[in-house]
Amino acid sequence: MLRTHARHAVAAGVLAALASVGTARAMDSAAAHEASIPFANLGGIYDWEADGDHGIWVQDIRRQWYYAKFMGPCTGLPFAFRVGFVTEPTGALNRWSSVRVRDSGRCYFASFEHSAGPPGPAADRAAQTLIPGLPAGDRRGAGAALGPSARSRHL
Known about the structure:
Shape: globular
Oligomer: single chain
Radius of gyration: 22 Å
């Protein structure tokens, strides 16, 4: 009887070890695919666009888009001319970050993922970004909301 219990204990230990290795690999795999903008606090963010009060598209300096969904409504975002990105201590913008909106407070991210960018034809977005005579990212001539790069230079 003691041998049977010992065999069961060894088998349970082996199964637990295999399960923990599989869980660790799954966590490493998920962490490897998490979206992040490094050095967002040092100019790593090129542009942004609000998605109503429930999300925000963020473009990094390599022109790659990301989408952050908020934990709850971010009431002032649709009307904001500028926002503050609150990053990790390392300066990275990721799912643990948030956005500060004047008169609305802080809007925390529920998720942060790679994205194709705001809806609409890519050619329209490119035309808005590359208006002759205006700096890249300044879309005032296109009638769209200003991005942070234009706001910081012209206000």
